[in-house]
Amino acid sequence: xxxxxxxxxxxxxxxxxxxxxxxxxxxxxxxxxxxxxxxxxxxxxxxxxxxxxxxxxxxxxxxxxxxxxxxxxxxxxxxxxxxxxxxxxxxxxxxxxxxxxxxxxxxxxxxxxxxxxxxxxxxxxxxxxxxxxxxxxxxxxxxxxxxxxxxxxxxxxxxxxxxxxxxxxxxxxxxxxxxxxxxxxxxxxxxxxxxxxxxxxxxxxxxxxxxxxxxxxxxxxxxxxxxxxxxxxxxxxxxxxxxxxxxxxxxxxxxxxxxxxxxxxxxxxxxxxxxxxxxxxxxxxxxxxxxxxxxxxxxxxxxxxxxxxxxxxxxxxxxxxxxxxxxxxxxxxxxxxxxxxxxxxxxxxxxxxxxxxxxxxxxxxx
Amino acid sequence: xxxxxxxxxxxxxxxxxxxxxxxxxxxxxxxxxxxxxxxxxxxxxxxxxxxxxxxxxxxxxxxxxxxxxxxxxxxxxxxxxxxxxxxxxxxxxxxxxxxxxxxxxxxxxxxxxxxxxxxxxxxxxxxxxxxxxxxxxxxxxxxxxxxxxxxxxxxxxxxxxxxxxxxxxxxxxxxxxxxxxxxxxxxxxxxxxxxxxxxxxxxxxxxxxxxxxxxxxxxxxxxxxxxxxxxxxxxxxxxxxxxxxxxxxxxxxxxxxxxxxxxxxxxxxxxxxxxxxxxxxxxxxxxxxxxxxxxxxxxxxxxxxxxxxxxxxxxxxxxxxxxxxxxxxxxxxxxxxxxxxxxxxxxxxxxxxxxxxxxxxxxxxx
Amino acid sequence: xxxxxxxxxxxxxxxxxxxxxxxxxxxxxxxxxxxxxxxxxxxxxxxxxxxxxxxxxxxxxxxxxxxxxxxxxxxxxxxxxxxxxxxxxxxxxxxxxxxxxxxxxxxxxxxxxxxxxxxxxxxxxxxxxxxxxxxxxxxxxxxxxxxxxxxxxxxxxxxxxxxxxxxxxxxxxxxxxxxxxxxxxxxxxxxxxxxxxxxxxxxxxxxxxxxxxxxxxxxxxxxxxxxxxxxxxxxxxxxxxxxxxxxxxxxxxxxxxxxxxxxxxxxxxxxxxxxxxxxxxxxxxxxxxxxxxxxxxxxxxxxxxxxxxxxxxxxxxxxxxxxxxxxxxxxxxxxxxxxxxxxxxxxxxxxxxxxxxxxxxxxxxx
Amino acid sequence: xxxxxxxxxxxxxxxxxxxxxxxxxxxxxxxxxxxxxxxxxxxxxxxxxxxxxxxxxxxxxxxxxxxxxxxxxxxxxxxxxxxxxxxxxxxxxxxxxxxxxxxxxxxxxxxxxxxxxxxxxxxxxxxxxxxxxxxxxxxxxxxxxxxxxxxxxxxxxxxxxxxxxxxxxxxxxxxxxxxxxxxxxxxxxxxxxxxxxxxxxxxxxxxxxxxxxxxxxxxxxxxxxxxxxxxxxxxxxxxxxxxxxxxxxxxxxxxxxxxxxxxxxxxxxxxxxxxxxxxxxxxxxxxxxxxxxxxxxxxxxxxxxxxxxxxxxxxxxxxxxxxxxxxxxxxxxxxxxxxxxxxxxxxxxxxxxxxxxxxxxxxxxx
Lengths: 366, 366, 366, 366
Fold this sequence. Notes:
The structure is a homotetramer of 366-residue chains. With 366 residues, chain A is an alpha+beta fold. Chain A has helices spanning 38-48, 108-115, 131-147, 184-199, 227-236, 257-260, 330-351, 357-365, and strands spanning 5-6, 11-16, 22-28, 65-67, 71-72, 75-76, 81-86, 151-159, 162-163, 206-213, 241-246, 264-267, 270-273, 281-282, 285-286, 291-297, 307-310, 316-319.
């Protein structure tokens, strides 16, 4: 149970280390008959690609995906889809030093504690490159969601202490700036702030927000496999995420029942909610309102400032991590959060297909 | 996949509705040889029992647990442990009215959307009584953790806007006041505030904090089954939880790498962290520091104030929910959070036993 | 992973020991909206009840099932269905002796090896009473199969060396004789033979055959979750089963491709097979022909003859197992095999609902 | 749930079609610290390689395995091991014809029924090449078993009606003849018989036997995850297997309790069985005796004789399958059976590590 397999029906198995030969994913349980090409996957991968701005790693990777199975004549066959991206930029030499100590804020120490040793090159399996498999799978899941009319919008809600202004919210802006913020002005301020952080040899965190529109109601399984619980695991499994919330999230702690409850009303013959404090999920089941969730992302742990740690000989030492590191993880993590949400939604949609015997009988009578 | 089964190796299957004959749980995968009696389970159940203070439901339930299998001569046998609590206080008559409309903030609407109809008596399966099975299983998991020297402390960190003062933190106080707060003064203030809310026919939320001490390092599976991700799902699967965080949680979003990174140092020949912003988990694996997590609990949705909703005939109506309802969920949810954490830790500890071939070889040579 | 939970979507969790308070099962993942009463379950349980003929245990049990959850106003609600049967006939005194040695052919020794000790009363968890939970779940699964037009016929194909004659096959005869054989004459011969075995203080085995009619094609998942592989696990998990085969089974080993291949042909606009050596499954997927499977059942291990074994003090001893034991397991196991097949078919039918995107799109547009 | 992922803790995810770019497997849950090289895998793959004798496909494949992840400095790291074999010999042209009809005995028809269409080139995912992933994973599982002192011997017990003579059993002979038979004379006879079948444009089946030596007792989980049930699923999931048995298997149906029961006795201070009719498993748990299992393999369905089937236009037609096909599957399937057994044993051994609290406490105190 090394934990690299995810999902109940729509399953993904990711693999690969930062400086191994390749990273990849096997998607098992994808329905047959979906048009799918490497271009569909590539457009997702390009959103997490390094080297896109002065704030992201200048790693020289093209990250070109190759599909090895599961597609025939341009369509999914229902059998496992194996995809990989070759690692071109190994530069193993750079990492000889970090093999000797534990980087603060990284998983070096805990991998050693767990496994007895570690592939120290670029963080090995705990590297951000691990997410390539998630994003490739997310691209496929998104194709399925699109066919069901479900759309996901994900963006940076805040970077450090710079928050977006919802009054200026422009979805088209999200992919227009390197911050992946839906507010042009906030994005500019965030970039200015990041330059300062870089000058200070420091880094900062932020919050990613994700909104799922046109989600059908009735999705999510009561008790342990609630939709919000499943999304929580999906999002919290991404490297730097330290917090997760749905709807009003932590704000509910200081709210009241009268303020926090969403009323119901009729509109055009349909039951809708009068507000959406719940974030689209009641009792673990989608209620037809947009699903709104947020993830708190920690500051990049690799900073150029001097830090204290311990070396292999058990001595307290000071270290300066060399090389060029992103001062912020948030922008590149946006598509990772979106991918994990997409994969989870598909899985939960599929699970929900057996909730009612009348719908099952109709299905098999087709 | 109705979602009432949880766990990979230490598995629990809960069942039962608020006003059915009984509620219960089957625990499968409990190791043989653990001394276990109904008293061990009862002491956990008593912590979530209604009617313990003026702030909790006056439901007339003893909630006496009965163990039906899996124990022989006072010890677990390694086979499934089936436990149940009979529902004495059915009072089905009280609920005839709520069968006709959707209560705001409850799962009435989404259960109907998912299943086509619902057991409306007392919320059916979405009732807080569903957690009895979780807590009974949590009592067993805690026995296992105790044998491994691991301790969990859980309490109300805040109720509404009343927060505990860590300077006054007294663990013995937690079970001394009906707020389950480790700060006597905060507990008093919270009770005064709750009385006001009740007078206003309103309710409020709060935050539960949980600290795991003496957790061994190396537990948690990289990538999807990270320890924090697994805990997130466990805790978010509890009814009223809208947010989850680990360590500094949402605060990391406005922190910096230099402030948020925990350094390492040698102490008495062991590697320890110089701080614990990470909350005891790095890269999804426990690092030997205390695990600290928090859950945001929403205000009780059942309030006596007039609310707007929709009835079965598709008409907008105003409702007043009758009966006596807790103005706060937090105190009774403390043991539920602790139980879900305990169950998850046992499962993750067991999963971690196959991380290293040298330890496996030693195990089988015993 | 004590192994008492089965299924992917339609899941069952059984529990209970032969001489504990009760035995039971929790069924999770049953769709909402199925009419279900205790009578539906009882009729299945009655087929495995002891004391029905001179060839089955005279244990004084009524085996009356009680449903504790998951049903509201006579219909399944989609939440877990908990069912139990109280053990009335404990007679623990009878079993003081067998606590001291290992019965040949029983699981006494291996339970001790695995768990360090065992509930020795009546075999504890390894007793045939463990199957009560399977059969109760099988009754529910059968209700679902019936709604989809699928029927299962199960019977004793042979008892010892007495085989049924397919020329005399009469399905109505199956429940007419205590042998559960579809051939009246064979049943008579089998009963005569069993009387001899009893006089010789011996027991015998047999073969159970199961035929699934009107099974839709396309069910079963390629590679590891093939329909035949899943059925094999289901049936082999029943206590006394030592062999499993599908279609021509072991006969294929001496057949030829030209004889064993089933041709295809058009009939009334549909593609059918010209023969059914494959037993209704090709490449792990149902082909629309009847599914035919067989299980080899070993002779009852409890016999009155003197046997050699070892006692707790590590001495070689001779034993004579007292009490009255069935000379044959086959008749009572017929409904157990049918139940495991039913549960597995429902699970595989549900899993197959996501094979094609066009059908998924149609489902969600309902 | 397309079914290409197998295992609970030691998990494998296979992928790939006969004529896609590659076939492969991801092994997740392999412990850290095992020396492993591509040579270890290759030696297993070579045992199933085509073109090794006149009785196996002359397909021009080297089947060279490449390890892409999970190994660092020659040792497993505990992270997923991704392995692939490129398909060199596509020859897609050969398969244009079979896209137009359903080959008897193959999965062409059922894949179409399930998925709506199929990758018809060489059988696509239902090709024997699918087993490459299983065998590569089996090579790793075998390394683990070796470290625990467990050995597996697998061979052809019969080919058509030619059976081995146990009096002449020579384990060294198994890999000496293209039949993988442990009896030189039987192997010769089998080859002569196969030549006849080829002349008759026909094929034949056989039985594979597998013996696991030095298996520790206490492995296997009662009720649904019995060791024999798990092995049954593992082996029945291999393409051409139509029957599975353990120990005396189908012979028990005509045996008696007095003959079939294995007595116990003391030998050198240990409890052993006086015979092994049970095949090393009692109550689903290993008893310390050798595990003996058998699989019935059907005749190769691809034969050169004229066969009847249906074409895409819904017409009854006669077909002659062209190309060179193995007249027997058995020899190449020997290593596949062994691999599935190895993978299953490792998984079940790992699951058994949590059976007893005393052993768990000792483990964590290491």
